[in-house]
Every structure is written in C-alpha cells, then in structure tokens.
C-alpha cells in the first residue's frame, strides 16, 4: 500500500467571480462587507485579476510528486488540499480515508509553523482522516538542510543587481506573514522562527546589514505583530539606507502577499521615499526546491 501525501496551501480564488465566496470562507461563513470585498478585489486587479498562487501551487505539487517518484518510485500518492478554496483539504483527506490508506503524511507549503496557521491545517486534516489512519504531520521545516542555502542564494542574486558603490548602504529585510499579537500570550514561537531563519540565512549569504519585518497583516480591528515592512522601509530610508533587498522568507511561491504586498505596495512606498527596492526570486517549483521537499517527506516517513 502506498503512503499518502497530503500537500496543503492557503488557496486563492480561481477567477474574479470566486473572490466573494473565497473571502466568505476566510471569514468562517460571514460575508465580507462591500468595502472589504472592494478592497480585496482592488488588490487582485492590481496584479491582473487573480493571484498566480493556484498555478504555482499546482506546479509545486506536480514537481514534488515527480521528485518523490524519482527518489522512491511508486511509494507515495500525492494529493492537494487547500485551506480556503476547492479542493479543500478536508475533501482531499477524506479521499485518502475512502481509498483505504493506512498512513498519510501532511505537508504545508510554508517553512515556519504557528498555532494560528500551519497547526490549523494539520488539525483539520487529522480530524477528516479519523483515528484509523496514521497521520504524520510535518511541522516547521525551515531548518531542514538546504532550505536556507536556497534562500541565501536568492539573496546573493538580488544583491548582485545593486551597484557596488551602494552596497554599503544596502540592507536585506527578511519578512513573513504577520499574525494577531494574541499568539504571543500562548508562547507561540513563530516570531522566533522568523528571527532564527533570517539570522542563519544572513550568515549563509555573508550579510553585514539585515533585519526582519512583518507583512500582509489582516484587515481586522485586533492588533497584529509588527513592525510592518512598509514602516520599516521608511525607517531605513531615514537612517541613510539607499537600497533594500526584500526577502519574503516566509513564502515559497508568487501570490498576492508577494506580488501585491511587495511588488506593488512596498515598491510604491519605496518609490515615494527614494529607496531602491529589489525582491528576491520566489522558490516556486524550482527543481532544487522540489527535491528538498521530497527529502523532507522521506525523512518524515
């Protein structure tokens, strides 16, 4: 019997007509206000109407399946489930149970873990699989050998685009998705994971100047972790920084939080304050990254 591999990601609307239903699922069944819907639609429109995440994730899942079939032929059955957009992860998990799988491994396409993000994917998958299926949840995998080396390589490539005479006033900012501050009360180590992964990537890239920031905070009334990257850009410019390399280390593919929040919104702030902003290339379905994920799965099995 093959081992099941449930690959999970956040999900994104497939077409502009799907945005409202998607937003309603994110809000746990509560429809967004007209203002909220207009704001999200505006952001999607700014990057072409929809996010590239669906295509990027499909390519990653296919690439991972190919890499696993090379490393361990015919050993894994790879299926995808999304948190907020069909195919939902519950349906994918149910399909494994219906097909009689004894063991299923869960992998979220996010290197860091948190009680309010990746842990929720795992809880939903475990519940859907039931007690008769052995579920192996892969937690934070940013420390797995090779990942930070890939990140550091992309940082070096971005730095290579900046003139040598400005490198002394260049800083690299590593960022990840912000979460509500209330996670701190429970001792969630998500912020520490960002700090440590950024520090190790900076060392591998040979950086002298680097920092961290949060991005993509939700549009809610509760406080979210900061400082936000837009605020950090303004601060750095005031300190004499001329160039910033943005490395969204918490994300592994191009999607709204990268293509809009960095390439449009942060780039707009950088232009306004006279700062040159360069973003590192996303991992997407890079074969090296796919092989890395395959070895993470093999190590867990």
Kindly describe this structure:
The protein has 301 residues and is α/β, with parallel strands linked by helices. The protein folds into two domains: 155 residues, Rossmann fold (3-Layer(aba) Sandwich); 133 residues, Rossmann fold (3-Layer(aba) Sandwich). The protein has ten helices and eight strands. The strands form two sheets. Strands 2-1-3-4 form a four-stranded parallel sheet, sandwiched between helices. Strands 6-5-7-8 form a four-stranded parallel sheet, with helices on both faces. The two termini are 14 Å apart. The model has no long low-confidence stretch (mean pLDDT 96).
Radius of gyration: 20 Å
Q: What is the CATH topology of the largest domain?
A: Rossmann fold
Amino-to-carboxy terminus distance:
14 Å
Got a strand count? 8
- How many structural domains? 2
* Overall mean pLDDT: 96
Shape: globular
CATH class of the largest domain: Alpha Beta
Contiguous helical run count? 10
Amount of helix? 40-55%
Question: pLDDT below 50 for ≥5 consecutive residues: which ranges?
Answer: none
> Architecture of the largest domain, CATH level 2?
3-Layer(aba) Sandwich
């Amino acid at each position: 019997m093959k081992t099941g591999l449930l690959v999970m990601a956040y999900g994104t609307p497939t077409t502009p007509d799907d945005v409202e239903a998607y937003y309603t699922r994110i809000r746990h069944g509560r429809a967004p206000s007209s203002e909220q819907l207009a704001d999200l639609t505006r952001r999607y429109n700014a990057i072409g109407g929809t996010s590239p995440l669906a295509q990027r994730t499909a390519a990653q899942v296919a690439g991972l399946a190919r890499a696993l079939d090379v490393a361990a032929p015919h050993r894994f059955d790879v299926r995808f489930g999304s948190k907020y957009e069909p195919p939902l992860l519950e349906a994918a998990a149910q399909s494994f149970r219906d097909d009689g799988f004894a063991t299923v491994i869960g992998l979220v396409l996010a290197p860091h873990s948190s009680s309010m993000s990746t842990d929720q994917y795992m809880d939903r998958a475990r519940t859907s699989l039931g007690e008769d299926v052995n579920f192996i949840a892969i937690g934070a995998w940013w420390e797995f050998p090779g990942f930070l080396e890939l990140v550091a390589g992309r940082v070096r490539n971005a730095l290579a685009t900046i003139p040598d005479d400005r490198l002394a006033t260049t800083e690299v900012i590593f960022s990840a998705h912000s979460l509500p501050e209330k996670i701190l009360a429970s001792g969630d180590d998500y912020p520490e994971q960002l700090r440590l992964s950024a520090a190790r990537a900076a060392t591998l890239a040979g950086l002298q100047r680097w920092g961290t920031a949060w991005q993509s905070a939700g549009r809610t009334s509760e406080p979210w972790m900061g400082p936000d990257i837009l605020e950090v850009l303004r601060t750095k410019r005031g300190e004499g920084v001329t160039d910033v390399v943005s490395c969204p280390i918490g994300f592994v593919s191009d999607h709204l939080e990268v293509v809009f929040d960095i390439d449009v919104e942060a780039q707009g702030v950088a232009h306004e304050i006279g700062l040159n902003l360069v973003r590192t290339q996303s991992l997407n379905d890079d074969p090296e990254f796919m092989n890395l994920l395959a070895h993470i799965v093999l190590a867990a099995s």
